Amino acid sequence: MLGAMQDWDLRVTRIIDHAAREHGARELLTRWADGSETRTTWAGIRRDALKMTQALRKLGVGKGDRIATLAMNHHHHLISWYGAVGVGGVLHTINPRLFDDQLEYIANHAEDQVLLYDSMWAGVVERMKSKWTTIRHYICFDNGEFEAWIGAEDGQTEWATGDERDPCMLCYTSGTTGNPKGVLYQHRSTMLHAITSLQPAIFDFDARSVMLPVVPMFHAASWGLPWGGAAAGVKFVFSAVNDPAVLCELMNREKVTHTAGVPTVWLGMFGHMDATGAEIPSLRHAIIGGSAAPRFMIERLMKAGVNIAHAWGMTETSPIGTTGAKTWDWDDLPFDDQVSIKQMQGRVPFGVELRCVSLDDPDVELPRDGKTSGALQVRGPWVIQRYFKADKDAAIGPDQWFDTGDVAVIHPDGTLQLTDRTKDVIKSGGEWISSVELENAAVAHPAVAEAAAIGIAHPKWDERPILVVVKKPGAEASADEIRDFLGTKVAKWWLPDAVEFVDEIPHTGTGKISKKDLRDQFRDYKLADA
Ligand code: ADP
After folding, report:
1. Were both Cys, which of 209, 451, 492, 509 would link to 442 (CB 3.0–4.6 Å)?
2. Ligand 1: does its nearest atom lie under 6 Å from the Cβ of 176?
3. Which pLDDT does position 431 carry in this prediction?
């Protein structure tokens, strides 16, 4: 016997239908790179997305075809998301800051048919055009071309229909090891993720919210904001430039209540606020994730009355994995303890399951004791099953756990605390040393701008850590001083065997430290006692 309720398929076009119907007059604002501004509404976004589906059909683009974007945050980009999925296609957001060989690989691997791009990336397009073998149509978003292209249509059409398990979006991981890998989201997974994202512990949205997403639409689906924001009918304030002065001005003028971005965004914002005395009194909710948010950042925002959702996730998890859901006793905790909890990566929403297994034996599940660290695994309806075009699943075994590549501790109340990445953790004398904790300790030194710890082969200990340091401009510190400083913060046997000063540490296309390149750089490094 089956249940007798309606089969309302979970297709993401239902989200924009809802936004236009229930929040049709709600405004969205774009600040373009040239400083001009455009306002539209949710009804306008839906109308233009329908026009785009007509225009795509005329190009012969339809079900299952990949439609790529190379663009910053603006409402034309948002229209293209709903237009691409509306024609039954697969939206492929490309990070324009990737290296050329990655750009070449992913567009060809995805077999993109159409590329919509911002004029600021026209140079990338020109450079790559001869290497992209499948793209048939190039349309510029912000020189009048996109508007003319969809403007020739009347919007009198229907969305493509299909199965809720059809693909709707493709995002590639930045590929810190090997080639980038494609994560192919379904309508269903995206819809469930969007509904979940509305919770207070995640985006905390309703129709009164004004959201300025700093996280780019090309990075991990802008954390799902274009879907969740439409479901809630929020006002989006998009900025095609990420200059802190512009962001601050927009936040104040448009009375922004919500924002989302990686920690470095706040470093820029604080710098601007300190230099000018600017404040953001309307802001009440900030989602921070992608890398660990430092304590001073959380403390400063919390003191300003901003609720912090410090989130952990990855492209493979759509990307929401955990956020700072409060425990029942939250209000009774002293402020310092609240900050310490927010500094960790938070707790799962309903729908995500986490566990840690031993780094030495993945069959051994570890206790949630807040002490034992291991390989973090995740599963749930918006977690990856298999990479695009891969011939075997990424989720392991009958229980479908996906290995995140992160190393973590889970506390008894479910709070996740990341301690490292599996490939970066350093094994010394049979025990594990967290490279992240060494780095966090090192950057607290006033002369250190950036630090990275890597393991170097050692005949007796297997591996020993060394610390690679970039000094702040004009600052001075010796290797011994830094080791002494670390000695006050980490166990003695964790102390790096050497501290090496460099001008620059290599980064990936998404701006994270590339340990792979750093390890290559130090491949022939010899420790003094090795
Ligand atoms: P990539 O894996 O290609 O760098 P993602 O954007 O998917 O791209 O990054 C996911 C990874 O980022 C996670 O596996 C984790 O290592 C790191 N990460 C994400 N959020 C946090 C956070 N709040 N604190 C620390 N690390 C984080």
Report:
1. 451
2. yes
3. 87
Give the ligand 1 atom nearest the CA of 311. Answer: 23
3-class state of residue 312 by DSSP: strand
Q: Residue 10: which of 195, 198, 232 has the closest Cα?
A: 195
Superfamily of structural domain 353-421: Luciferase; Domain 3 (2.30.38.10)
Portion of the chain with pLDDT greater than 90, in percent? 87
Give residues with Cβ within 8 angstroms of 239, minimum separation 6. Answer: 30, 31, 73, 212, 214, 246, 247, 250
Which CATH architecture best describes the domain 426-521? 2-Layer Sandwich (3.30)
* Residue 315 CB less than 6 A away from ligand 1: yes
pLDDT at 468: 96
Q: What is the pLDDT of residues 421-475, one digit of tens each?
A: 888 999 998 888 999 889 989 988 999 989 999 999 998 999 999 999 999 889 9
* CATH code 2.30.38.10 region(s) in the chain: 353-421
Distance from residue 168's CA to the centre of ligand 1 (Å)? 23
Which stretches within 306-465 are classed as H helix?
Answer: 335-343, 435-443
251 vs 229: CA distance, rounded Å = 17
Residue span(s) of the chain under CATH 3.40.50.12780 come to 13-343
What is the average pLDDT score of the chain? 95
- When mean pLDDT is compared across 103-107, 194-198, 372-376, 486-490, the lowest value belongs to 486-490
Phi and psi at residue 300, in whole multiples of 5°? -65, -45
Instruction: Return the residue whose CA atom lies nearest to atom 7 of ligand 1.
Output: 314
What is the pLDDT at residue 179?
A: 83
For residue 386, the model assigns a pLDDT of 97
Pocket test for ligand 1, best of 94, 172, 312 (most atoms within 8 A of CB): 312
**pLDDT tens, position by position, 133-176:** 999 999 999 999 999 999 999 999 999 999 999 999 999 987 65
* pLDDT exceeds cutoff 90 at 332: yes
- Cβ of 291 less than 6 Å from ligand 1: yes
> What CATH architecture is 13-343?
3-Layer(aba) Sandwich (3.40)
How far apart are the C-alpha atoms of 177 and 374, rounded to whole Å? 20
Helices (H) and strands (E) in the chain, counts: 15, 24
Helix (H) or strand (E) holding 321: strand 320-322
Residues 167, 64 contacting (CB under 8 angstroms): yes
**DSSP readout, 40-55?**
EEHHHHHHHHHHHHHH
In which element (H, E) is residue 320 found?
Answer: strand 320-322
**Atom 9, ligand 1: residue with shortest CA distance:** 314
Catalytic annotation, residues = 173, 316, 427, 432
Distance CA 248, CA 73 (A): 16
Locate CATH 3.30.300.30 in the chain: 426-521
